[in-house]
Amino acid sequence: MHAVSRLNRTFSAPGLHERSTVTKFSDLGIPQPLLRALHHAGYETPSPIQAKAIPAISRGHDLLGIAQTGTGKTAAFALPVLGRLLADRSRLVPGRVRTLVLAPTRELAAQIAQSFHTYGQFMHPSLRVGVIVGGVQHRPQADMIARGLEVLVATPGRLLDHLAARRDALAATEMIILDEADHMLDLGFIEPIRRIVALAPKARQTVLFSATMPEEIAALAAALLRNPLRVSVAPVGTTVAQVDQRVVFVEGNSKRDVLTELLRDEAVTRAIVFTRTKRGADRVTHHLNESGIGAQAIHGNKSQNQRVRALDGFRRGHVRILVATDIAARGIDVDGVTHVVNFELPDAPESYVHRIGRTARAGASGQAISLCGNEERPLLRQIEKLTRQTLPVADRRGSPPAPRFKSWSADGAAKAIATSKPRPEDAKRRKAHSPIQALGTSKKPLVLPAHGMPRSAHGTQIKKVL
Ligand code: AMP
Q: What is the DSSP string of 271-322?
């Protein structure tokens, strides 16, 4: 219930270099039960993407939305969908799906369904929402379709399996939403999407959201949407403005020690560490646990249950550090992530934007720290080019490693003890080189203009520290 029980949340999140002129949800023509749920969830004002997209979708337009996660895009499509369902609940038929939402990952699909539950919690009879994703049993999902659904949130691969047996499940579908289309492209889902959408009536409403607009997505939109309205809240590749970003140059073999040191900082209350590979995620998690820092890994080789458990522990604050690969982490919506650490830079620069968007959600601020080895410099340059900024850099090459810690549990409780005592001169040197200390002055959030160099909050140009 991630969106419930939050009081008075004003959406001031930029990424969004614009303010909406609409200040109230009630100005957007949202029906009463939904307004009540928004109030209950503590939403005070519509975010810019909501202010733009909700009226357009409610009027029945196809829509092409350029927005990244953290902008409130889920409610931007969920509220008009629910408004439409509320207008006529009698059209639910067994074996048919009224609204289809396609999402790239199981986690995102589950979160979207959760948002529908949250916004639709005061609907009577209660909303019929279902999730169809891989990695879980087939049968209950087939039964769910057989009973009929007002909203089905699905990942394309598993849905196609079901549609092979039930080709008419989408025969009466009124709306299709494609969320994080660029990510679905990365995962090779474009062909499955085309095949799925072909099973729905032509006279439907289609909405496509994407954080970026590569050619293939533009082509998909041209094929599936009719005269779409375009709304966008951030230029492609713009990073979330309240994320304070920095880079630490490190030698590859000292990354783990620098990471451990970073995560020991008390300011890190909830962090996601990104690795490039699943094995890398496991190795980093093992190292952190060995060092007495409780961490859990989440990636595609974990079972659905393990993933749900890890996410749940993280969300509830039982686990402070989540170690994730890009695919597993896209769309993870956990509030209060204070830090994102890129243990390795992503191969695709767009992933950087998505990764750091895990912090600074819903108007909060956060820090993103990227550990960059020599061989990763070209990746860093690509990220800087895409996001049109120069990131502040601290140099930790050649500095002594942090002391090694080993986990130790005599009484079952995790404790940490130093296996080698740090030398005082090392401690001094480390402090001078500490990634957080070395950039003390740039703790101010970066304010990213739409074009050109970023400026610190007080207006001075940020330069590389090297
Ligand atoms: P999304 O971009 O849809 O993943 O939403 C990001 C986060 O913002 C989620 O935690 C939502 O619950 C929250 N959110 C969405 N719209 C609003 C709003 N108008 N006011 C406050 N929080 C919101």
A: EEEE-SSHHHHHHHHHHHHHTT--EEEE-TTS-HHHHHHHHHHHHHTS-SEE
**Which residue CA neighbors atom 14 of ligand 1 most closely?**
72
The residue type of 191 is: E
Q: Is 349 in the pocket of ligand 1 (CB under 6 A)?
A: no
The CA 362 to ligand 1 mean position distance, Å, reads 6
pLDDT digits (tens, 9 = 90+) for 187-211: 899 999 999 999 999 999 999 999 8
pLDDT tens digits, 347-382: 888 888 888 888 866 556 689 999 999 999 999 999
Distance of CA 441 to the CA centre of its chain: 28
CB 367 within 8 A of CB 223: no
pLDDT beyond 70 at 215: yes
Q: Is 74 in the pocket of ligand 1 (CB under 6 A)?
A: yes
**Predicted confidence band of residue 68 (pLDDT cuts 50, 70, 90):** confident
In short, whether 357's Cβ falls inside 6 Å of ligand 1 is no
Q: Which of 97-111, 274-288, 418-432 has the lowest mean pLDDT?
A: 418-432
Q: Which atom of ligand 1 is nearest to the CA of 111?
A: 4
Q: How far is the CA of 43 from the centre of ligand 1 (A)?
A: 8
> Looking at 92-101, 224-233, 323-332, 426-435, which range is the least confident one?
426-435
361 within ligand 1 shell (Cβ under 6 A)? yes
Distance in Å, CA 90 to ligand 1 centroid: 30
Domains, the chain, in order of start with CATH, read 2-232 (3.40.50.300), 243-418 (3.40.50.300)
Integer Cα distance of 57 and 55 in angstroms: 6
3-state secondary structure of 43: strand
Q: Coil, strand, or helix at residue 332?
A: coil
Residue nearest to atom 15 of ligand 1 (CA): 72
Residue 180 Cα to ligand 1 midpoint, Å, equals 15
Mutate to test the pocket of ligand 1, among 9, 177, 233 (most ligand atoms within 8 A of CB): 9
Q: Output the pLDDT for position 366.
A: 83
Distance 13 CA to ligand 1 centre (A): 9
What pLDDT band is residue 38 in, cutting at 50, 70 and 90?
very high
The pLDDT confidence band at residue 445, using thresholds 50, 70 and 90, is: very low
